[in-house]
């Protein structure tokens, strides 16, 4: 099974950006531990601060991956274009968020992506990514 993790804007700053919200670990360090823990899954990741690049990566993913774990970050609440890309590709996408977006500012309560995603996982810190990947493993076994 091949899973792509796509991270949106500002997630390249994990480990230094608002550690009280996002924790103190970099995504690179977390990703290395995730690869070690979930050796049965071929994991790749991509991060961009640019909406169009995220859309291009989602389009490309449909040709090479069994699923996508998507943390579109702030684009979750603003991007109809990313939501349309999720809807357009023929592989499942699980939306994730490190923080509990429902417990934050009201503008973060709306997700344009959720209606087109297989599921949504929020609020478990970086563990949200692992939970999303485990959902793909569970779905494969059904």
UniProtKB/TrEMBL annotation:
Q: Which Gene3D superfamilies match?
A: Dehydroquinase, class II (3.40.50.9100)
UniProt pathway annotation = Metabolic intermediate biosynthesis; chorismate biosynthesis; chorismate from D-erythrose 4-phosphate and phosphoenolpyruvate: step 3/7
The broad enzyme category this protein falls into is lyase
* Enzyme Commission identifier(s): 4.2.1.10
Q: Name one GO biological process term.
A: quinate catabolic process
The molecular function GO annotations come to: 3-dehydroquinate dehydratase activity
Residues that bind substrate, according to the entry?
71, 77, 84, 98-99, 108
Domain of life, source organism = Bacteria
Entry keyword set:
Amino-acid biosynthesis, Aromatic amino acid biosynthesis, Lyase
List, alphabetically, the InterPro entries matched. Answer: DHquinase_II, DHquinase_II_CS, DHquinase_II_sf
Site (Transition state stabilizer) at: 17
Q: Which residues form the active site?
A: 22, 97
- Write out the catalysed reaction: 3-dehydroquinate = 3-dehydroshikimate + H2O
The function of this protein is: Catalyzes a trans-dehydration via an enolate intermediate.
Outline the subunit composition. Homododecamer.
Stated family: Belongs to the type-II 3-dehydroquinase family.
The protein's name in its UniProt record: 3-dehydroquinate dehydratase
Origin organism of this chain? Answer: Mesonia phycicola
Q: What is the lineage of its organism?
A: Bacteria, Pseudomonadati, Bacteroidota, Flavobacteriia, Flavobacteriales
């Amino acid at each position: 099974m091949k899973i792509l993790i796509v991270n949106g804007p500002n997630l390249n700053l994990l480990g230094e950006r608002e550690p009280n919200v996002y924790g103190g670990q970099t995504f690179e360090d977390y990703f290395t531990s995730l690869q070690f823990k979930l050796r049965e899954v071929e994991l790749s990741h991509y991060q961009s601060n640019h909406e169009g690049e995220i859309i291009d990566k989602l389009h490309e993913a449909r040709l090479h991956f069994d699923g996508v774990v998507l943390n579109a970050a702030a684009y979750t609440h603003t991007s109809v274009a990313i939501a349309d890309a999720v809807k357009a590709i023929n592989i499942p996408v699980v939306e994730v968020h490190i923080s509990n977006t429902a417990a934050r500012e009201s503008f973060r309560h709306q997700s344009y992506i959720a209606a087109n995603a297989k599921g949504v996982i929020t609020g478990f810190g970086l563990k949200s990514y692992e939970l999303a990947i485990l959902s793909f493993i569970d779905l494969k076994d059904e």
